[in-house]
User: Fold these one by one.
Assistant:
Number 1:
Amino acid sequence: MAQERCNNLALAAIASARIERCALRSEREMKTALRALFVTVTILLALAFVMVGLSKLAGQSSVHWAERFARWGYPAVLRPVVGVLEMIGGIALLIPAATRTAAGVLIVVMTGACYTHLSHGEPLRIVPSLVLGVFLVLLWRQPLRHRLEAGTDPGSED
């Protein structure tokens, strides 16, 4: 009877250790998946801003942007300034030390875009700016990124 009880305790300890290893592996996989999602979103945002910024500076679409900026009543110099901010901001999103600052600058640019579209009766045109802005705010806040780098639980409160 005592031998059987020892065997049961040993089996329970082995099972517990296996469950703990599985939980740790699952936690690592979750952190890896969240990191991959964070990096993917950052890269997509960077590409979007570089492409839109470039469209304000060169090619046929820059002519359309010039017409829009003029119609909105902005000075001609503002279009290339916004284009350069978007391009540099998009590239800076990919640099970890500059991500937060770049996101902050781009949030201001997207806020200006939303204001412009709303004040000129173009409510549907705010959707892209809002979507990009929401992702930028998430990137700017970065609580998940800091917790992942610190190795703490992403579900815990700071």
Number 2:
Amino acid sequence: MEGFFLTVFINLIIIIVVYLYNSFANQEETTIYRPTQYFSQQSTKPPSTKKQITKFESLLGLLLSKGIIRQDEFFYSPDLMPNDTIKNNLMQVIIATCKHLCLPITLALNTKFIDCTNEPNTPGKKITGHFDGQNITIYLRQNNTLTHYAATIAHECVHAYLRQRNISLSDTHENELLTEVATILLGFGIVYELAYEEKRTYTHTEAPAYISLQEVKEIRKLIDKLPKPKSSNNTNNRICFNCKLKMPKGTFFCKHCGYENKSDKTTPDNINSRICPNCKLEMPKNSVFCKHCGYESHNR
């Protein structure tokens, strides 16, 4: 009889331990994170704590609780791209995106491009990008614009950014939504909006993001309530012709890449450059030898 009660007692202890372990393991994903505590004091009065928190508010709160802060808006203008091949233009976007996120440039150099223009027309969402933990793959599809790919590149690079910081959710769909919110928080919301507005006839399977244009705008409104990045307070900035990052107006050498910007214009009249076929970095259009790797290129 004593053995029976001992067995029951041990089984009960095991059940309690397993329950507590599962509760702890799922705690992060079931917790409702409220972003209102991070809102700027200049913003409107935060909503009542009794108000139902939306999915995007909870995901934004989770990112803020992990130390991810609002970043400057990513500078992107397809009109400033040189008249070059789609792959070379995309490489410039990837390099600029990595620099914006302070990701290693090797992530850009290891990016793979797969031509899917002749693939059969199968149902389901058309994947335009993938990050496998080390490399980014971009799937080139017919009728996709450069801005569409820029949105994909931002999303995949943010996957790498979050992975560096061990931020993820176990549910695949929820993790994609988390990445979308993070992408907008880190300054790429403008790219998403441009991608949607360039081609307003997107079907669900061809959309440039997992979320709709209306949801992009909803998330951006939430983020607008957060304190602006300190660098945003300085309006005396211009864009470096080489790396496309912000630099103080009145200076000529970029602090990010060292490039000498001889003109003090806010944006260049044109970009007289091309991509080295060897190292994939930008070089003057009329140069024969790449200043980065020394590769001899005669294509002008």
Number 3:
Amino acid sequence: MSDTEAALLVVDDIEDNRFALSRRLARQGYLNVTTAADGRQALELLNSRPFDLVLLDIMMPNVNGYEVLAAMKASEDLRHIPVIMISAVDEIDSVIRCIELGAEDYLPKPFNPTLLRARVGASLERKRLHDQVTARTRELTEALEQQTATSEVLQVISTSPGELEPVFQTMLANAVRICEAKMGTLYIREGDAFRMVAAHNAPPAYVEARMHELIRPPPDATLGRLAATKQVVHIADIKTIPSYLERNPFVVTPVELGGYRTVLAVPMLKDNELIGAITINRQEVCPFTDKQIDLLKSFASQAVIAIENTRLLNELRQRTDDLSEALEQQTATSEVLSVISSSPGELEPVFQAMLANAVRICEAKFGNLYLCEGDAFRIVGMHGAPPAYAEARKRDPLFRPPPDSTLGRIAITKQAVHTTDIRTTPSYIERNPFVVHVVELAGYRTVVGVPMLKDNELVGAIMIFRQKVEPFSDEHIDLLTNFAKQAIIAIENTRLLNELRESLQQQTATADVLKVISRSTFDLQAVLDALTESAANLCRADRAAIRLAKDGAYHHVASYGFTPEQKEYMKEHALKPDRGSVAGRVVLEGKAVHVVDTKEEEYRPPYPSPGRTSCRPGLTTPPFSCPLS
């Protein structure tokens, strides 16, 4: 501040004194001098514009110099202005009173030019130093406040990983407070529009109008200009832009709801791509300072960092979840394969392991495994099923599902079927007894089923159920499909193993018979007995017998599994070739005869059966007979 720039106020009720002092000050280089004729006018001037020094007369009518000085020192805005008291009264008491009231110095009339120059210069220097300290203090305070706000935002970012709302709210609260705004909002860019995701101190009606729709601002609106330029937009009075003057509803409605006039918006940029914006508003026409704009830009940069951190963290979490899920699925697969290898030829533990893992990993309530039998399905495995449902399925394990049911659609399409809500299917709506019964017993709503295919032939299906409407994910369906493939492997392995076992048993039985033959060259009976026992064991039959032709009839020569009484009866009663017995039919037809169910065909047993004529007593396997040739 130079002498010519220093603003001085001379207060004296005598015009000649004012003129003389102003002229003397001008000669000394102080050209910015204002005069006041009394204390009241002086206070009005002091409250209307800034001054650097006041030269104040003491003895004035109405409001004297003491009163003006007291009023200045009582005012927060005026107390820092130095005051030199001037008066013809040169009494020590007056000097002391002025100093006590806060005056910087005291000058007696008439003025000594040298003393005037010295005391005015000293007062202005103290004012300059005071202004510098005040400005520096203000800068440090603002910097500390901004650093504190930045630190607070960073603290929220670090303590709320993956959460953007608390970060945005903290940013807006600090921006509104430090920048002395009324309210603040934060928008995220979506395509060619904006979505408001956070607001601070905004009227509820304003938030309601902005929150529930995408915003496509006019080109001259704050956000419109920001989107076009990717630059800071500062509008001193929103009511002066064309969109408001033309009563564009997009601009008029929020302005009237929010009651704002001055608005500042800064872009949120990542690699020069606009990803959002922060706006703060004042309800009076009062532009923001450059420091406030810089602070808001700093918050915008932090918002971009928070968004990017959240994106990376969410990607990391998703990747971790994917890896955890993959590991869990691999572990489940390994467990099933382990059961398959440790239970050769046994399907039940394999099916149970599959269903238990599928239900657990897919967060289902229960699961079932079915095998095809012709055009029907038989339930062969359940896990976690409600007791009433499980009991009903055990009573009737074989069933034919309706075509539009989950299992029915699998049978038709041989593809995975995902039913979000079973109660919306036509079979349930039309009250199909089968569907309604199982749905109400099990209480399930969402179901997914996958086919078990071998060479594109449907072998069975795996299904898992939820008791609420909650669709399964693609990963869950993929896991279930993998289990279905493992089930096919287990079934095929069991089939091959059982065939191998049967082949081995047959070879062993043949070897046993040959041993008997070799050891019993002249003992036919021992050979025939060995044959009947081996045949019964290999075929898992309860009984077996051999009859040989003699004199037009077929006589019993060897048997296995019959009581002594039955054996004796069969020896005494040869069978005639007729259709009343299995052996008779074999002789007549010259081929093997297999009676699947003796209740379905007229059958006469080869020994007495009191009270029964159509079924062999105690029979547990269907009768089968073949000719010896």
